[in-house]
């Protein structure tokens, strides 16, 4: 059974007002969410925060005490390809970095609808290649992301493979979007259980059309499930049983295994969309981040 802390979290989530970008406007809601956070807010003051640019892309490092300088993970935030900033991401990424114990660089990639596909993916590629140019060994890097950021993690890995560029040592995709061409399966069947994505602010196919208006939704960089997965690095996917993207995770995991990828699927019973990012709110999320840490450190979670 879920913990009491999780039940309290869900009670607060159910009672929170819904902020719908389709009604407010994507840019307006993004600015509103950003304005609520002090410019230099950092929930874990022991971390070192370093704003930077990587090949022209705004980013910021979060460094926990004692982390090895030569190892890092690139973090790609979610938000339906349209929401999320370095400030809003920092609020949940900093506690995760503290628990994981590795340096992280958060990517402030361009967002739709102002910057449709492939702008965001281009930025993630530019940031990753900048780390290689700085001397990081590919095996010492990982890609980590949640929701649309998980989609970008998988799309970036496929693009790196397609372009013959060095692949990172590990991939972590939390509740990723892996197919955006149809609303079959959990996209509709689990709507009664979904508490984060189940209003009209996020319909997978509609969001994908805004994100990539000139690209078929079945393109592997939009729907990574349809890519050639053989040769991808070790992969950890997390998903909750009560979210509409459950089938996205399950199907990608199954295809990855059949393609010879060293893939692990971590399923959270009754957990919500992208539940590990709430590591300060309930123990199930903290435990999941511990397993992500094990995976990034080279051990089987």
Order of helices and strands: HHHEEEHEHEHEHHEHEH
Helix/strand-derived class? alpha/beta
- Largest sheet entry: 8 strands, mixed
Number of strands: 8
How many individual helices? 10
**Radius of gyration, CA atoms, in whole angstroms:** 18 Å
The percent of residues in helical segments reads 25-40%
Give the terminus-to-terminus CA distance.
21 Å
- Taken from the alpha-carbon principal axes, the silhouette is globular
Q: Into which percentage range does the β-strand content fall?
A: 15-25%
User: Strands of the largest sheet, in order across it?
Assistant: 1-2-4-3-5-6-7-8
Uncertain runs: none
Q: Please, what is the average pLDDT?
A: 94
Mind explaining what this structure looks like?
The chain is an alpha/beta fold. The protein is built from 10 helices and 8 strands. The protein has helices at residues 4-15, 21-24, 26-35, 86-100, 119-133, 148-162, 186-189, 204-211, 246-258, 283-296, and strands spanning 48-54, 57-63, 72-76, 103-107, 141-146, 170-174, 235-240, 263-268. Strand 1 and strand 2 form a beta hairpin. Helix 5 crosses helix 6. 46% of the residues are buried. The model has no long low-confidence stretch (mean pLDDT 94).
What is shown here, in short?
This protein has 301 residues and is an alpha/beta fold. It has 10 helices and 8 strands.
């Amino acid at each position: 059974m879920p913990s009491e802390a999780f039940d309290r979290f869900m009670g607060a989530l159910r009672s929170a007002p819904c902020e719908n970008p389709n009604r407010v406007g994507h840019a307006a809601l993004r600015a509103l969410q950003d304005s609520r956070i002090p410019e230099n807010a950092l929930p874990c003051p022991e971390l070192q925060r370093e704003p930077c640019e990587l090949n022209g892309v705004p980013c910021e490092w979060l460094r926990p005490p004692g982390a090895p300088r030569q190892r890092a993970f690139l973090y790609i935030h979610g938000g339906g390809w349209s929401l999320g900033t370095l400030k809003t991401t920092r609020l949940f990424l900093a506690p995760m970095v503290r628990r994981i114990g590795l340096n992280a660089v958060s990517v402030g990639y361009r967002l739709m609808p102002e910057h449709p596909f492939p702008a965001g993916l281009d930025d993630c590629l530019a940031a990753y290649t900048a780390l290689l140019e700085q001397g990081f060994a590919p095996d010492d890097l990982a890609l980590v992301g949640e929701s649309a950021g998980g989609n970008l993690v998988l799309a970036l890995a496929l693009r790196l493979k397609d372009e013959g560029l060095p692949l990172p040592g590990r991939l972590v995709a939390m509740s990723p979007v892996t197919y955006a061409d149809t609303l079959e399966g959990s996209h509709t069947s689990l709507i009664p259980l979904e508490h984060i994505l189940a209003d009209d602010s996020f319909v997978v196919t509609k969001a994908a059309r805004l994100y990539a208006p000139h690209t078929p939704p079945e393109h592997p960089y939009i729907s990574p499930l349809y890519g050639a997965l053989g040769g991808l690095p070790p992969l950890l996917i997390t998903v909750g049983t009560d979210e509409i993207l459950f089938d996205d995770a399950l199907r990608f995991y199954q295809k990855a295994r059949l393609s010879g990828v060293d893939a692990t699927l971590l399923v959270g019973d009754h957990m919500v969309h992208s539940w590990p990012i709430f590591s300060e709110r309930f123990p199930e999320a903290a435990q999941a981040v511990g397993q992500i840490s094990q995976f990034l450190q080279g051990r089987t979670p």
